[in-house]
Description:
The protein has 194 residues and is of the alpha+beta class. 25% of the residues lie in helices and 34% in strands. A hairpin with a 2-residue loop joins strand 1 and strand 2. The longest helix has 16 residues.
Amino acid sequence: xxxxxxxxxxxxxxxxxxxxxxxxxxxxxxxxxxxxxxxxxxxxxxxxxxxxxxxxxxxxxxxxxxxxxxxxxxxxxxxxxxxxxxxxxxxxxxxxxxxxxxxxxxxxxxxxxxxxxxxxxxxxxxxxxxxxxxxxxxxxxxxxxxxxxxxxxxxxxxxxxxxxxxxxxxxxxxxxxxxxxxxxxxxxxxxxxx
Length: 194
């Protein structure tokens, strides 16, 4: 009983620790481009054979894209094609895509990765140049139009890139690489502005 009281007293005396999101409050603005951290979102890594795509699409409320470099969006949820049987599903509407997939009996693998990833927005007329400072992919509108998505690299880090409009991109990266990716994009933004 004395041990329990001591633990209670120690817990009450210790200061509360607030978890701070990675890159909290960071933003970079340069002529023609802005780099900023996007709010948290629900994410899943989804793998499924062709025979399961229709059932998963129905459960997720959008048609999973089947072509390379494509995405589909509906109601705050976006699915990005990453491979013949692989998608990144991002939900910014406060819904849980993992729970939606759990209702599907068809063969699939859905893994929650919400806390693994960070999203960074790169917007403005110089956004393409800022990203291309470290990404070898052709990001011209002809080769990478709005809605295009791919897994690629930025400097030495793997990213998933989504073009959300002609002058806007969403960069998804692992939390452990987020400082590197944000700093790289910020330097790219300053170079593109110069």
